[in-house]
Amino acid sequence: MGNRTSGAPAMADVARLAGVSHQTVSRVLNGHPYVQEQTRSRVQAAIEELGYRPNRVARALVTGRSQLIGVVAQNTTLCGPVSLLAAFEQVAVAAGFVVTAHRVNVLDRESITKALERHRDQRVAGIVVIAPTASAHDAVDTVPPDVPLVMVDGDVERSTPLVTVDQVAGALAATNHLLDAGHRTVWHVSGPSDWFDSLGRIKGWRSALRAAGAEEPPIVPADWSAASGYRAGQVLARMPEVTAIFAANDHLALGILRAMHERGRRVPHDVSIVGFDDVPEAAYFIPPLTTVKPDFGAVARDALDLLMARIDGNPIGEVRRTSTPTLVSRDSVGLPADRAFRAVRKRKARGVG
Amino acid sequence: MGNRTSGAPAMADVARLAGVSHQTVSRVLNGHPYVQEQTRSRVQAAIEELGYRPNRVARALVTGRSQLIGVVAQNTTLCGPVSLLAAFEQVAVAAGFVVTAHRVNVLDRESITKALERHRDQRVAGIVVIAPTASAHDAVDTVPPDVPLVMVDGDVERSTPLVTVDQVAGALAATNHLLDAGHRTVWHVSGPSDWFDSLGRIKGWRSALRAAGAEEPPIVPADWSAASGYRAGQVLARMPEVTAIFAANDHLALGILRAMHERGRRVPHDVSIVGFDDVPEAAYFIPPLTTVKPDFGAVARDALDLLMARIDGNPIGEVRRTSTPTLVSRDSVGLPADRAFRAVRKRKARGVG
DNA sequence: CGCTTGATTGGGAGCGCTCCCATAATCTCT
DNA sequence: AGAGATTATGGGAGCGCTCCCAATCAAGCG
Question: Which PANTHER family does the UniProt record give (chains A, B) (predicted)?
């Protein structure tokens, strides 16, 4: 038992059993050339027999890099961040990495800095920061440039490698969808103003409105929760001129839906609503919610790609990757009541009804 | 720069700067006694000056244990598992650990075994398995007994250290709540039959029914999704005798809610529904959902407690911890229509209405 | 005063691995 | 045939830390 501390066999044990040097075992393990087939299989057999598994900690010590990827994300059960984290973990594991996450409760500079430091203590191979606020960027600037790092959903203006979903395009599609349905204008219930996601969605909404020459109503601010959507909805529900709402996410939309229901404003008959995220439940809201679906899988893959390029030391040509979300049309969007009425009248006049 | 591979200063650098041996630095770092106050502060100053941070990988190599806790969980955005994972990470980080998670797509023996092996390659200090199926237990039995391991939401019959929420008690409370409202019996839309959670909830529902002498309707099987809840709801909605439903989770309840709505059966007027989990959105369903709220924070704390006891080698007296969920009463439960009718009639007869 | 005791420090080994370099043995080419 | 490249192996150093085992010095005691 060359190894007295832990029960697990070490490389030396394998070497002894196979009658080779530890170096040869290492070569077999790492797929190096210059090992005879016969030797290789002898080593392989010894590995099998002992149930040997290489100690990644020792490897990390000598190489200076673990196979760990650190993720900093917000501590939330929000579908977006969660899906993203899960998707990233999936692709990272498939690529032979292990993911460790630090969830922070608030996205301020200090918490994020601390999380980053802890990751660096672990000698992670790279870091992914999913923290779409400006303060996150400030914290990230603390990290020396030699640690591979990519941001997800960050500031498009900064130079850090960045992967995002195209919030602007998504919001544009949502707003246009509502406009195309015949609404004069579209109201927006936005996410927290320090999130880049919110900002992008506002921007897309606004530019769709402008392009259509529609009047721009004031933004109704909220956070991401159904509760705040409900509050926003209570206000909106008592304004008869509100016939179309683009909510910054699906939970917000859920809250709005309920507020509308309570005041007897029917969706989509009286007011149309579009959400964002396409949470799995959105199809079962009352009514099923039309929403915008980001491709979290694509974001995760892009983030890993960029990160691996940085880890391998490749100069990454493009430091920005964007994926475009798609509109999922369900039942929460319809004709505005006045236009529908006019349409009916017209048909009646033509003797159709 | 005593350290030529990476830019980060090592213990030797600190020692040199402070004019002491590496051993003394180590002692300061680990809070050992027998270090003079003056020496200690000198070392501290050197640490500060260099921005030294101990290399946890090296420490892990020599001690044979990292400060990592491995978690095996299902890859899902289900609120329950996600909240649990987040809560666990929180408490673990507070205790100075780092959490790495392996999410598996299917909870079969092979996937879980693989995840466990990968964790052990990292020399994690302990493992938490959040995988409430029997196959998970089979996989866990592969792990040698010297690696600290605790299960969450597992089989109460097995001997592995286990932390659970009391599904039976929760289901009992939900069912009794419905029975107390005056319903003759309660239907149950259950989760997948290979989850212990489902089994526990079925058990609680059943025993509540028996205790009340109520007739036991057939179980309506589903998975955890809103989609399957909707399908179950479509069936239930066309059965007039169904006036009360206990759904195994909130998403299921959401699907049922919509199916009821579509067929014009009003909740809670015609049929009452109780869910499970208390997802943040449940308060904004139409109508707000009465549900059962498990205490994920408590589960997380208990799991860490048990795990730390095992890590420290303490013989754990109790290897089972259970927390009882609480009923959150909202608007989806009411009197059954026939009884309400009778109540009205009675009141009318008494000349009250 | 010699001898134990405790406080305070340092020196070295070694965790399990990968890297660099040496050593053969075989093959290729002028 | 001898110099060089190519293939196949082993030996040793060392990653940054913690552990074990001295060594030193002051104080305490018979």
Answer: HTH-TYPE TRANSCRIPTIONAL REGULATOR GALS, LACI-RELATED TRANSCRIPTIONAL REPRESSOR
